[in-house]
Amino acid sequence: MEEIATVEIILSVSVSMEDDMCGVRLSLPVAEVYKSVPVIIDFTDNAKIAIKDAIDGDDSQVLIVKAERGGCSGYLYDMQIDKNPNDLEFQTIEVEGIKVLVHNRDSELLTGITIDYKNTLMGGGFQISNPNANKSCGCGQSFS
Questions:
Q1: How far apart are CA 128 and CA 65, in angstroms?
Q2: Are 144 and 67 in contact (CB under 8 A)?
Q3: Residue pLDDT, tens place only, 75-89
Q4: Segment 18-44, tens digit of pLDDT
Q5: Domains and CATH numbers, the chain
Q6: pTM for this one?
């Protein structure tokens, strides 16, 4: 049974509200609400090989896949190999011995993607195919 959770994160944002008497600046909390869904990501054989080569057998390293605000279309894909943050806000997927983490806030944007690795004359790189994207940029790194 799929479990869907809605999570609310309180962020502190400085809002310019000055008291005429004292010049006091208030900081108001802002809530970021997102839906968390179980993440499913497919990796091509070439992508698995490239990730395993980059991790180089270090079990403390994980692949973190993110969707960050920015780019031409609204979001940018980001992938990085880093130490496991051991944060409960991340979902962990095991892919042939590779630990892949996706933050719950990115889960709805990234579930269903396929990650591939292409090696070309101009160099290699990861390519992400996202069937849920409404549009994507010509560079292939930006989507909405």
A1: 11
A2: no
A3: 888 999 999 999 999
A4: 444 455 566 666 666 778 999 999 999
A5: 39-143 (2.60.300.12)
A6: 0.71
